[in-house]
Amino acid sequence: MDRQLILLSTLCYAVAVAHTLATLRHGVFHPRRFNFVAIALGFVLQSAFLYVRGHAIGRCPITNLFEVFIFLAWSIALIYLAVGPAYRLSLMGAFTAPLVLLIQGFALLAPVDMPHSVRIAVNPWLEFHASISMMAYGAFALSCVAGVMYLVQERQLKTHQLHSIFYHLPPLTNLFAAITRLLWFGFALYTAGLVAGFFTGQPLPWVKMIAAFAVWIFYGAILQGRHLHRVAPKRIAALCILAFTAAVSVLWAINFVSENRPS
Which of 19, 127, 190, 214 is the most buried (most CB within 10 A)? Predict the structure, then answer.
């Protein structure tokens, strides 16, 4: 039942992607409310899934890799819906939808939805640690999307090949400001998640700690380079893409190890 909600949600994101590709195929891109509505509907269905699954297991639905990826996709959509209009990045939906579609499509196709037969007592600090960390990943994902947009526009300016999509991209200065804000927002959430991890009252697996602090240091170094103006905006955009790719790989690794470690 709950997986059907994710199937419908994934279909909404697929429709948004198909609509974007159709407009690009005709040589003229017109960002309209269609993509925003499709993503909003997909987000509502994601929220319904998280509610149903969370009620069934009696805790925050981040207990296996399938739920982790769905929660990540939900966080990306949440932050997009919250901050996209504020930064006037309406075109961000054209870049966000494919990312969410990829994440949810993989989660649905891969055999990673392993049920937990044992019902565990809710630990508020653990729930906060897990959920706030995943929301940080959502912010990092949006900074990655904004980084892609920055590099696309910078490339078109450099080659003097201005396609119709170029005229709907925000100025490079606005994009870079959005990247910076998303990085700081994600870094603050991630820091709160790390701190909360020390109050869970449970043993801290050293592998997860090393991986988590490696991600924290990576993003901290990007922000330090931005703050000191030692790294060019183009490289900051590229590093956002690299950092998110690495962070998701680490997320996959630590959850895969946790789920397959003998109890």
Answer: 190
Q: Are 123 and 202 in contact (CB under 8 A)?
A: yes
Contact predicate 215/247, CB 8 Å: yes
Q: Which residues, in sequence order, are CB contacts of 102 under 8 Å at separation 6+?
A: none
Quick one: pLDDT at residue 263? 41
Higher pLDDT, 206 or 4: 4
The two three-digit tokens of residue 135, written as one number: 């929301």
For residues 194 and 216, the answer to whether their CB atoms sit within 8 Å is: yes
Tell me the pLDDT band of 84, cut-offs 50, 70 and 90.
low
Could you tell me the two tokens for 196?
A: 């909360």
Give the chain's end-to-end CA distance (angstroms, integer). 29
Q: Could you give the CA distance from residue 101 to residue 17 in angstroms, rounded to a whole number?
A: 8
The model's pLDDT over 160-187, given as tens digits with 9 standing for 90+, comes to 666 656 556 678 888 899 899 999 999 9
Assigned token pair, 153 = 């526009």
Residue at token pair 């739920």: 67
Could you give the CA distance from residue 51 to residue 258 in angstroms, rounded to a whole number?
A: 24
pTM reported for the whole predicted model: 0.85
Q: Using CA atoms, how far apart are residues 47 and 11, in angstroms rounded to an integer?
A: 15
> What would the two tokens of residue 215 be?
């991600």
CA gyration radius for the chain? 19
Task: Write the Ramachandran bin of 160: left for phi over 0, alpha for psi from -120 to 50, otherwise beta.
Answer: left
